[in-house]
Amino acid sequence: MSSSLDRHTLAKIAPKLAEVSSQLLFNDIWQREDLSPRDRSLITLSALAAMGRTQQIPWHLDFARQNGLQQEEIIEAFTHLAFYIGWPAAVTALGCISEKEERSCP
After folding, report:
1. Which residues are the signal sequence here (predicted)?
2. Which of these, 26, 48, 65, 103, is most buried using a 10 Å CB contact count?
3. Residue 40 and residue 19 share a domain
4. How far is Cα 35 from Cα 105, in angstroms, rounded to an integer?
5. Does the pLDDT value for residue 103 go beyond 60?
6. Within this chain, do residues 74 and 87 fall inside the same structural domain, yes or no?
7. What mean pLDDT value characterizes the chain?
8. Considering the entire predicted model, what is its pTM?
9. Tens digit of pLDDT for each residue in 31-71?
């Protein structure tokens, strides 16, 4: 199995999970008007970094950029998070940015 699943590979492995994720998460939760997609991406990246879920970070980095976050803002968010989620978690999340080409994180 690859180190990171995207929508397509998830659909091959677990079609129902992919369907529910698409319908509920991306077509409902991500579309709610009280937060912008940009803000939702920032929150999601922060939560993934805090929980050490680095396998999901590369996909969400790309999605965050599509939602308007700039590289500098993402780096600043992870830098800010170092004091709340711990230095190792923040540095590991920052490593995902430089490892983007390989689509995996340290």
Report:
1. none
2. 48
3. no
4. 28
5. no
6. yes
7. 90
8. 0.86
9. 999 999 999 999 999 999 999 999 999 999 999 999 999 99
